[in-house]
Amino acid sequence: MILIFGGTTEGRMAVEVCEQGDGTFYYSTKGDLQQVELQHGVRLSGVMTAAEMRTFCEQHDISCIIDAAHPFAEELHQAIACTGCHIIRLQRSFDQDIEGVCYCKDYHEAVGRMRKDGVSRLLALTGTNTIGKLKDFWQQTTTYFRILNRKESTDKALKNGFPPDKLLYYNDSHTLPTEAEETELMRDVGCDAIITKESGDSGGYKQKVDAALRLGIGVYVVRHPQLPDDWTYVTGKIGLRKAIEQAVPAFFPLKTGFTTGACATAATKAALLSLLFDEAPESVEFSLPDGEIVSVPVQVEKKGIASVIKDFSDDPDVTRGCKITSTVALTNGGDVVFKQGSGVGTVTLPGLGIPVNGPAINPTPRAMITAEIKQLTEQGCEVTIAVEGGEELAKRTLNHKVGVVGGISIIGTSGVVFPLSNEAFLRSLRREFEVAKAIGCDRIGLVSGKKGETAIRKSDDIRCIHYGNFVGEALGMAQELGFSEVVMDIMIGKAVKLAEGNMNTHSQKVQMNKDFLKDVAGPEADKIDGINMARDLWNCMTASFFSKITDLCYLHCRRVYPNGKLTIKLICEEQA
User: Fold this and answer.
1) What are the tens digits of pLDDT across the range 212-271?
2) 347 and 403 in contact (C-beta within 8 Å)?
3) Residue 27 is part of a domain; what is its CATH number?
4) Residue 395 CB-density burial (10 A; 0-12 exposed, 13-18 middle, 19+ buried)
């Protein structure tokens, strides 16, 4: 079982991940102010001592603790460290040191620095619990404290003897102040310095610091406490799920993995590190397209060459377990040039968004690799990606139908492989619907993947569920659980299959049917012969064709979801 310590944005994230599993989990917060609806978890409220925590873990068979508490919850972190459980720290991302900011290891050092610098009018943005820690300073200067607009926060401030006329309050909008709002506050107070905590991305830290620096006033930052080295550290949902899969293997029915593009990115970074710094890391961190930092095991084979074994997920992909190698050579200039290694296919037809006659390395992996290179060097690089046995693997794919010959494609738009094609995924899918219903969602967005979610969120703040290829099952669940509205974004490749009545759009189940498309196209039917991929339709067909495809999709979906409001949106690559 899993025990989460939350009460934060990260706590909500941990709940969202754990709700996808089959195991039991507990969610513990200091108080009961945070509203978190749990469908499969158990809510706990109240402070636990270290002894109480150990007893709870023993009595409830807790094998893994997810510490998603505030970075400055030092007593809680110390108690967690004494449980003997495997500990995963879901932490915020912290910016690199900013020029012009005075960093302090604790509040005692901060007080000394501010006195030395002659700070006389301070705006403290460190929270109610730090009023006592800064007492030696505010008793001798003009200091304003901004705190939460709650009775318990005000009572705590007054109990410490802080003057009530110097208390400022957050507004009740439950949103963090913008940089403009922070600037206005600092001007109103007339402070010559602020003090804040290194609270990370989700604490409004950057807005505070940027506002003060633009005003030219002093900025004092108390660093976040350092935690034990033997904990597992993650910064987002994917890293957390992977860490849980390793710590509690039975918790999730299926395991996630990384795409060939993500593996190639990790291999490239490792190869470049060996080339630039003579390093041979056992793992490297890199950024997924959504900004989350993840870590992947690597093998540096020799200077400038490294490989990754494609992560073993439970998705039945032909590249599962294959070896992906990157060879990096430095060049003059600043460009990153991609070369074709053995096992990587050659692009022979347009429409993939990459140069014809070039290596089949898709745009997102190219962007990921380039971003990691640019963080390490301004020099140009020649990157050669190879896949062991790729020529044979390609024979088990549909690459030849899209004009990729001689090997596989290096692909992936999210960097992550989610297992989509068996009963365990459907169980996980149902749990997502149940959670959405439990937290009060009456309308739901259905998307096949990351591109669809990106498109739908541009115009609609709606909770999204990824249906993968299981259109019929997802709509059936929405109907059964009584959702009043479904908004489904679908890309053309799946839409042409769904329009024919195929409620499962997996390529192993059904392929694009040109004869069907010709029937839909009518007078434009001759244009269908010239396409190789469904996305090519955008370049040759008129709006009436796409309207017919959308109408047919709607017709088939209506049979499964007959009662609520249904909207089908056909999206193209540019929209995503």
Assistant:
1) 999 999 999 999 988 999 999 999 999 999 999 999 998 988 888 899 999 999 999 999
2) yes
3) 3.40.50.20
4) exposed
